[in-house]
Each structure stands twice: as C-alpha cells, then as structure tokens.
Amino acid sequence: MPNEGYLDSSVHWKVRTGQIAFAEPTHGEVADAILDAGLAIEVGQRLGSGKEADVYLARDPRRLVAVKVYRQYRTAHRGGGAIKLESMGQRAVREFELLSYAYLGGARVPKPGARVENMFSMQYLGSAESAAPMLQKATLEDPERFLAATLAGIEGLAEAGIIHSDLSPFNILVSDGSPWFIDLAAGIRVDRLGWPPWVRLSEGMESLRHGLAMLERHFRRYELAFDAEEILSRVRSQIDRFGVMTPP
Length: 248
Prior knowledge:
Strand content: 15-25%
Distance between the termini: 46 Å
Number of strands: 11
Largest sheet: 5 strands, antiparallel
Order of helices and strands: HHEEEEEHEEHEEEEHH
CATH architecture of the largest domain: 2-Layer Sandwich
Number of domains: 2
Structural class: alpha+beta
Strand order of the largest sheet: 1-2-3-7-6
Helix content: 25-40%
Number of helices: 6
C-alpha cells in the first residue's frame, strides 16, 4: 500500500475494510480530524484554500495556530478491487520538514508545530480579528523598507539551505510590517543533500529568477525597483560553495 510511512493504524484499518469515504470531508469532518489528531483543542474558520490544501484557524492549549490540511484523493481500482488511497500526506511530510529546516536556519517563516499524517500546525500570523494578509492584497505603509526586508528574507532562506520555488506576492504574508514566507510545499533544498548538486542548484536558481520577476512586477505599483541579477549573484555565491555551477 502506498504511503505506509505516515499512515497510522486506524487509516490502515479503514483501507482494509473499505471504510474510506469517496468524497472530500466537510468543514466539520476536517475539524473533527484536527481535534482527534491532537493538533488543536478548537477549530475555527478556514483561512484560505490552495490547489492542494486548506488552512484553518485553530487554537491549541496556549495560543492561536494555523493548521494546514492537505486534501486526500481516493480512487477505486476497476473491477471492484481493493481501494487505493491516493493521499497528499507525503506532501505534508515534505513541507513540514522544509518549514522546520527553514525555521531552525533562522529564516522568516512561521514556527512549525506538530504534524499528523496529512495535517500540520504552525504559528498563526495575525490577530484574533483577522489573519495577516498576503502581500498581493496588502497596502504597505513603508514599501521601500518592506522590499528591502523581503529581499533580505530571500537571502535568509538561501542561507538556511532552501530556495522558495513558488515565490510570489501570494506566498508572502505581511505581519507587523514585516514579510513572512509561507507555502514551502515545493521548496528546493540547496544544501547538497538529495538530488545531484548541479541539477538541484540549477532548478533552484531558475525558480528564484522567476519569483524575483513576479516581485519586480508587484513592486512597480510603488514605483520601486531592484537589481534581480545582483540578488541572484549573491544567492548563487551563497549556495554554490563548491563551485558546482561555475564553468571550468
């Protein structure tokens, strides 16, 4: 069975006995799953939805938290065979690991909490009245300072060993006048672990180039500009410590 590494015994039982539902759960069912997993003691509204996951406002015993829940897609084999669980749980595993790695490396990301299967909790950014807005929808009081902090934050992520491969004004939150990077689901580790270094570093730099172009377009509304090539050069020298990308 796929994804056995993160599924608990109750889910294995549901698969074996055919008790897996074929429709995505309701808000109430998701809330019950979050509570049953021990990620929160109270679940509130849904804060946002993406292509693969939803984020909910919740409360643990000490504070408000955000809980990200990856949706699960289920299909049955033709001919009435055993149910195959096509879950997004592995994506939750990966994003939680990247979030933890970035946080421990000092990057400006929400503090990770705990993970259970396809769900994980993290620091909530905002107040009890409203969540921190995405950069795309925020009005900046000091856009020049915010831009400088954003570019420094991108370099901070790289210093922690991660390139945000989906960098955009939709994946940066504005909280207390500062940028916070979210949605590391497809982040690229550039600390020489995993894929061959040249492939990984090249993919990371290309993703960063695309993300910087999106930020350039966004900050034109404030009549601000920055040298993307200079940022790329600094990040490249930071992550390519062994000259993998340097031509012979």
